[in-house]
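Hi team,

Below is the intake form for Inner-membrane translocator from Candidatus Competibacter denitrificans Run_A_D11. Please confirm the fields before the structure is written into the shared record.

FORM ID: S-0412
PROTEIN: Inner-membrane translocator
ORGANISM: Candidatus Competibacter denitrificans Run_A_D11
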Amino acid sequence: MRLAGFYLFALGVALLPILFPDNYFVIVVGASAGLHVILAVGLNLLMGYAGQISLGHAAFFGMGAYASAILTTRFGWPSLLALAAGLLATGALAWLFARPILRLRGHYLAMATLGFGVIVHVILVQATQWTGGPDGLSGIPALNLLGWRVDGDEQWYGVIMAAMLLVVWLTLNLVDSQVGRALRAVHGSEFAAQMMGVDTGRAKTQVFVISALFAAFAGSLFAHQQAFVSPDSFNLTVSVELVTMVVLGGLASTFGAVCGAIALTLLQQGLVVFEDYEMLIHGALLMAVMIFMPQGLFVGLSQAARRVRHRLKRRQPLPST
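The structure came back. Fields below:
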């Protein structure tokens, strides 16, 4: 069923540019939603499946973005090599950070990850020689994929959607693997998981690093797509938005994270027309969803669809004899 849902989702992604050709909103907002999906799916592995709270996920997003930006603009590295170096550096730092911090639980873990995000943001602002400081870093070259220069909106839509589908596919396989079962055991009861022979420290470290790598991957794509990065794109507000996407879509559900990321991206774009009332309507809608669909949009809509199908079956006349 998960693979069937993935193939259906991939088909919809591929058909969008065909059904809406030359539609700026679909292409540009779709690419933005794709980046948010990568971030939300990775964070959902950490929060939804492993049960570990993170309020500093935007830090890894920014590390991937600035690694690609600095290496390509300051040192003239090829974009793919800069992307790989950013992933390697982010993964190593995430592993070092995970070993001590994941011993914490609950709000202590949340505060520690929040502090990590603040530290990274301060470094991005203060290290003006490398990052450009508050003004950011511009002139980032286009992504070059083995001689193919990605510099148009349609091309970026294809690249980001391909990357998004790859991340979703990897996540679905990871969840169904031994690692995924260990993460669910840790979420249910860490003590019980240890009694069953699960190395809980290793499992939490692995998912933390994977989640960070997904975020850094999205950050590198973001930097090359925008050709500009600034610390404001990776602050605490972005981390809170990512958590909102995961909770809004539904914890411990890969397609829930996908649904939450797309829904919040479209909501932010649609509310721009309301200007001064944007945040008020935004908050009211989120509250309504969490009140009437506490398990998230994906689970809530799935349950509503099942109830409708059940009622329709009950109304069908009995076959005549």
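SUMMARY LINE: The domain at 2-262 is CATH 1.10.3470 (ABC transporter involved in vitamin B12 uptake, BtuC).

Thanks, M.
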